[in-house]
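ping. complex inputs:
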Amino acid sequence: MGQNTGCKIKRLEVDTGSRFLVVINPAFASELGVMSNDRVRVRGSKKTITGLVMVSQKIVKNHEVGIPINVMGELEEDVGAVVEIHPAERPVSIEYIKNKMNGMELNTQQIRQIINDIVKKNLSDIELAAYISAIYTKGMTIREIKDLTTAMVETGDVIEFDQEPVFDFHSVGGVPGNKVTLIVVPIIAAAGLMIPKTSSRAISSACGTADIFEVLCNVTFTIPEIKNIAERVGGLIAWGGGVNIAPADDLIIRAEYPLTIDPYPQLIASILAKKRACGVQRLVLDIPVGPNAKVESMKLAKKYSRDLMLVAEELGMRVECAITYGGQPVGRAIGPLLEAREALAALEGKEVANSVVEKSLSIAGMVLEMGGVRAGTGTDHAKEIFESGKARDKMLEIIEAQGGDPDITSDTLEVGKFSEEVISDADGYVVSINNKSIVKVARAAGAPAKKGGGILLEKKMGMKVDRGEVIYTIFSDSKTRLDDAVKLANRLKPVDVEGMVLEKVMPGGRVF
Amino acid sequence: MGQNTGCKIKRLEVDTGSRFLVVINPAFASELGVMSNDRVRVRGSKKTITGLVMVSQKIVKNHEVGIPINVMGELEEDVGAVVEIHPAERPVSIEYIKNKMNGMELNTQQIRQIINDIVKKNLSDIELAAYISAIYTKGMTIREIKDLTTAMVETGDVIEFDQEPVFDFHSVGGVPGNKVTLIVVPIIAAAGLMIPKTSSRAISSACGTADIFEVLCNVTFTIPEIKNIAERVGGLIAWGGGVNIAPADDLIIRAEYPLTIDPYPQLIASILAKKRACGVQRLVLDIPVGPNAKVESMKLAKKYSRDLMLVAEELGMRVECAITYGGQPVGRAIGPLLEAREALAALEGKEVANSVVEKSLSIAGMVLEMGGVRAGTGTDHAKEIFESGKARDKMLEIIEAQGGDPDITSDTLEVGKFSEEVISDADGYVVSINNKSIVKVARAAGAPAKKGGGILLEKKMGMKVDRGEVIYTIFSDSKTRLDDAVKLANRLKPVDVEGMVLEKVMPGGRVF
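pong. complex structure:
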């Protein structure tokens, strides 16, 4: 593969996203001695790029190289000109990925190289999927996960605060309705501790914390803005994707998504890398456990907690984990606007579902104890701040600092104008609420993109339901979406109502 | 994901190869509730297609769907018209691939579904790479490999011969210069047995059998043509890629190639599926073993033979394996034209490297014994046919049947007109020939695409070399390529000449 040949750059009106593709025709590929998925280097007058070869008969002529919009960059000036093209070596990290596939432990430099190649978009989809499969099937030691975390931090930007220590709270997710961040953050900030919370948008869930908070104010900030607001107000809730923090994470998630796998080492590194890059030193992690949550068994939740704490310790961070009940949604509201309203209402002292307040206060209590409040009194402390209205005041201060309306109240928020109540056709009790089905219905109703779409549960697990009573209401901004969501709800039946006697077993083994 | 929306089809002047991509913009993706790598179904007036979503800001407007040339098909008539688009489920085989990642055994139907989705191009690169990684790391039982083989056969065309039994010979490859097929096939056909050999082109090697035989005649035939020639002449050497036989194989190889892995179960299934689809009932397999061959240890070669025979038996085929020496090239010539010339010269009774003739006769002998020749006398039988000139006559008959010149001789073949001799700068012995480096130099000289490029070895392993003697000659059709190949040869030094005493170990442990 030592060929060195001239070719003409042709602009292709396509955007291949994070894929760095260049297109040549079969004759030219053969002349260069390359195949699809090999790499070539194209030397423009200002810049040299390395691209993955896509061999295509129809788009380019012999001795032409087609360059998509996203790969073009400074090659633009060379469009139509003859430039040099030659085969390039494949990245060395492919060898390291193979080593992992073969069950070998990777050293610090090898892990660093893989993450570096991912961030530089040097790996193709095939190679990225092989990396994910390899660590999914072969796992990583605590040392490897630590190195992976460090590599993810170092290949992106970091936030350095002047104040210390930096506190944070994070939920590993998987349980719908989990708006507790909107209550925890103002409590902690009101207590005088700094909590610059970065959060995510929904990928497959009904909404992420960033999607919820966006209902109330802006969530996209630069690093200096985040630093400024946090140091001035004590807390903020920003979208983590708005800054270049641990950029490997999004690129890896993109390839995990179609496989719906979450390799264990990557899961740990992903959380800790983002927190570390944000300068976090003390972190409380919420791990919801339950059927249809991200973590389904207590055993796995414990392993997870232990490993998270071990890796964090290696990185000089202090982490404590709260294993929480994730068997049904937290609170009653699911969907950006409905959840923002429920959280605001709680802070305003209105009556909301017990689970929301209880969970928020327990977690805030853990953070406060990490901040110096006497062990065993954290929750009481949090409750005091919450009930005194100081948390609400702080919340409005944060909303104002993030460009929102400081006079906002839960009453002023308008949910989706189309709604339909789902009615029970029998007497009984709620025996199960399927998280995944709830999410599907909420998404069909428009969440997370359409803020007003979602679900409001009237009945939760164990509650008595009479025939004709409302079990839950579906909200949407559009009639079509509402109809789709209702249709889906009728098919999936996310809330199960049964008579108290579920099954009768008669002598002789007959089952009614 | 229950959305159902209208959109306008836009023709995209790109060819995404085996990838079935459709392009929509971020706003429309959010409206549909889909992300990159999700699937959507586009319902045209004549045809409905399912494509993988690529989200791109720049190419399409909201409520437009961009359709690449290769995906277009009958949607062409709907360009500019408003058609229906809605999210589609991901293929169920992704779940089966995850099961395999988790170490589970797959059943017949699950394997069939995976292969079916591969052939229908329902899987993305990420999903295909996950399949390959999964069977690479977790392996397969004999039963699973059998099912995999059957699925690969059933998802393509098959050849059914009227005559029985059908014989064949196949080399698992990895050793350069392995032109023995060109000698084995005419011997077997001359003995009256039918051997319709399908062979491959080079992927990463210097040349495949199809590349070599193409020097002498056409190798691309339809199934009826293959059937006709084989039944009329007794033998042929066709390119397997010219027919739709076990099409899953090429699609899987495309994804294996960038990772340079060859999952063991896939390797076995791939060979047996192609042979079974060609109606082969009795098969001799050549497994070259040696450093830098595909199979590097005797132990692995034996496991390989055993498993190949077990799977073949399950399929009702009889397979015998020849584990051969693969530590250096077979014969002296590497490259399409040089190898065709060496094989013809052997058949013409000219003196050629011993290794070529010996290997060919042993293998032909094994095939003859499978065809009824008394055990232990196969090689003698083969030798008789070879030396009598009958094999050569049959070869010319085959060449004619495949549209070549029946008067061709080794003398009339013209190799690359540029050449350079590589000279030894010391007295010594050839202590090693690196197969992989030999291949790289031959490829730099133009093989396999440029037929005249390649290498002719003057000295082989163990031979004495005097200073100033030629070790090998590089041939090429172009001066530039020749220079590149010579440069590469100087860097890689594929042939190692050393004094007889390689290392002196002195008392006290000093090494000179």
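The CA atoms of residues 123 and 335 of chain A lie 36 Å apart.
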